[in-house]
Structure prediction request, 186 residues.
Amino acid sequence: MEFFVGNTASRRMARFDQFEQNACRAINRSSRYRAIAGFFAAVSRLGDGVLWYSLMALLPLLYGTYGLEASAVMATASLVGLLTYKMMKTRMVRERPCVTHPDILLGTAPLDRYSFPSGHTLHAVLFTTIAVTYFPGLAAVLIPFAILVAFSRVILGLHYPSDVVVGAAIGWGLAKASLNFIPLLF
Prediction:
């Protein structure tokens, strides 16, 4: 019976891998257009931290102590997020789609070697969740940007869709945990 269950699980995993590879190829095809590749490379670059660090620096200047608290929550959660995804990447060692599949184009240089989970997506969701909790008016800008960051990672051949989904789930979970704990320190 164990062989049957294991064999069924293996077949399901193989089907999922095939589905994900096909999805990755289909999404990556749009990067063959220079304007699309350039746009998503720029989004990805902003998602490297440029936008988030700028936001963290700006909030205390605009909102005083309340903005400082929001920035402190972001910084603390981001550090935990960084440690979490770095640890996971070194243990999961999933090669990037552009490495494994030569027909998937690399749209921009990766920051590290492995694919799982997407650190860009983790941080985009983490920062967006925290910022929008403190400043709901930012939702109109940050939520679409976070979605674009997530899409950019697959379009640019850097991540599989599951890397992005798991990164988003970790980012959301860390943001929610941080929002429940860190403000108690202020």
User: Anything to note?
Assistant: The chain has one domain: 2-185. The domain at 2-185 is CATH 1.10.606.20 (Vanadium-containing Chloroperoxidase; domain 2). The helical segments are 2-28, 34-92, 97-100, 119-134, 139-155, 161-181.
